[in-house]
Amino acid sequence: MGAVSDHQEPWGFQWRSSTYFIVATVAVALLTDMYLYGFIVPLLPFVLEHRLGLDPSLTQRISTALISQTALVMVVANPLVGYHADRSGAKRAWLLFGLAGALLGSLVLAMATSLWTLFTGRLVQSLASTCIWVVGLATLADNVPPGELGKMYGFVTIAIGVGTSGGPLVAGVLFDVGGYWVAWSSVLFVIVFDVILRFLMLERSCDPSGPVRAERAGQDPEREALLPPSTDPDQQTSGQAVSEKTGIQFYLCLCSNGRFIGGVVSYFCFAVLTASFDTTLPLHVRDAFHWGSLPAGLLFAAFQGPAVFFSVPVGLLKDRVGTRYPTTIGFALLVPLMWLIGVPGDERFPWASEERIGSIIYSIAVTSIGIVICLLNGVGMMEATQAVDEIEGRNPGIFGPNGGYSRAISVSSISWTMGIGDVRTLFFDRLSKSKIVRASVGRRDCEMREPMSRV
């Protein structure tokens, strides 16, 4: 009689591997990344001018260089991280690796006393950020059923918003109250909380026959793509053996899918729109309405705040009807609203030039845009995920035993980085050469121009 060994599940296996706990862990990971990313912004003038002893006229140019470096590193690292994450299968180790990089980069930044160490710390942070975003979103795709992906991404969007706003806010307050090292102490608290969740999280099996993958293979045909799916005969071989697509073949196969291309283009446009607000709003309201930091900060709250209330309902809507119609409606509504915010302060529209009327119109338009862009949240990640499911549904095993979520999401992430990075770099480079730099760029203005999340 053969002995049967009992398989003992790890402690707390049910809740540690549950969808909601995995989503919470990924959400906190992205919150931590955005917190660390924005934390340095209000401290940067102090670091450059006092700790490094640089001339104040160089502050804006160094800031531009740091932004350019971050964008370049992420564009280069995204496909590399995506490839290795898909090949390894297990995602938790990559999330822990990203956390270690974030901690190391933060320590280097905190102790930086030269430009070399400052750029090194930001380099390490950028690599860690790439790992966290690509692997974190791929972990969601691996573990969340397709019918709940929009809702779960809504929760993640809220966490990202908290990290985006909380980083510069906490840094500024603690710096004013307790000084430089007291401000950096909050980073340790955030990272410790994050590492606890990441060690507790247990991934589900990545087996293509698992429940999540099986459900994706038979998803509802009513879930339409942003663009029609490809009619490439090479992809119409359901039921036949197919060879695994690797290297450049993977990306050619993916880019032949209309859903994926639509998501990437939409994500790029969304990034350009977001970056345009981050970089121009403080200066526009100062010139048009003579507003200072507080009113501009409140406008940013009106722009970012609706995501807290509408992200989950919009995610539920996308789970029911797909991403095509909400995204199309979102871009269509943005056309008149983007025109409207350019009216106040423009002498060609004298009826809106009066400060009181113009400020009211501008505030309403910004708030409305903040509501409408909730329809665009997650479009890149969701379309990339569903494109992979669509291709693998027709050709099982075409992307290997671990699927292609990480590589697909890395391409989508590149489109976001290029859109948001190019706008900010061009803006700050132009601003650094202007005569108003020292008048408009102080600790508070740097805080207001904190980059938004890559939602």
Automatic annotation (TrEMBL):
Membrane topology according to the record: Multi-pass membrane protein
Principal place of residence: membrane
Cleavable signal peptide: none
Biased composition, class Basic and acidic residues, residue ranges: 213-225
Keywords carried by this UniProt record: Membrane, Transmembrane, Transmembrane helix, Transport
Subcellular location: Membrane
Molecular function as annotated in GO: transmembrane transporter activity
Domain Major facilitator superfamily (MFS) profile: 22-455
Similarity comment: Belongs to the major facilitator superfamily. Vesicular transporter family.
Name of the featured protein: Major facilitator superfamily (MFS) profile domain-containing protein
